[in-house]
Design goal:
By secondary structure, the protein is mainly alpha-helical. It contains 8 helices and no strands. The longest helix has 24 residues, at 95-118. The mean pLDDT is 86.
Length: 159
């Protein structure tokens, strides 16, 4: 499993970029998704055909389910695209652990966002600093939760 998690660990700077971008702008730019897909294209030849097909299926299913949430306005478009791209880096044997990590990160991200959005200092400073997530009432920068889950996975599975 350790070797399978190496590309995910190498993706750490991109995950941090996603989190910061979503905190600042409440969006995940397409260029981040394209960079992630390009990096996966470099890593894909090192996966076996069975593992590659499982990861591609997980990415496709994530995109389809995410699209439903996008239509329901529960997820943003960038969240859906990046989460689907990130699923390509999650080994099939670690899908359960990733879902747990994402659930915990989503809960923590929601609590953090609600705290930031209700703090008087954050709502006054957020617009001055340009961090839209501080004053985007009722909206969650889900990129933070996605990034946290991706960063935590290698530690959760002992990779």
């Amino acid at each position: 499993m350790t070797g399978q998690l190496l590309p995910l660990a190498a993706l750490a700077p991109v995950l941090i970029w996603v989190a910061l971008s979503d905190l600042r702008e409440m969006r995940i730019p397409n260029k981040i998704v394209l960079i992630t897909l390009g990096f996966f294209a470099l890593c894909a030849p090192f996966l076996g055909p069975h593992e590659l097909s499982l990861r591609l299926a997980a990415g496709a299913i994530t995109f389809l389910v995410g699209y439903v949430f996008f239509v329901l306005r529960a997820f943003g478009g960038g969240d859906v695209k990046f989460l689907a791209a990130l699923m390509l880096f999650v080994p099939s044997a670690a899908m359960g652990e990733f879902l747990i990590a994402f659930s915990v990160a989503l809960f923590a991200g929601s609590a953090l966002t609600m705290g930031l959005q209700s703090a008087p200092v954050a709502t006054r400073l957020g617009p001055r600093l340009g961090w839209k997530s501080c004053y985007a009432r009722g909206k969650l920068p889900m990129g933070v939760s996605i990034a946290l889950a991706g960063l935590a996975l290698p530690y959760l599975v002992g990779g």
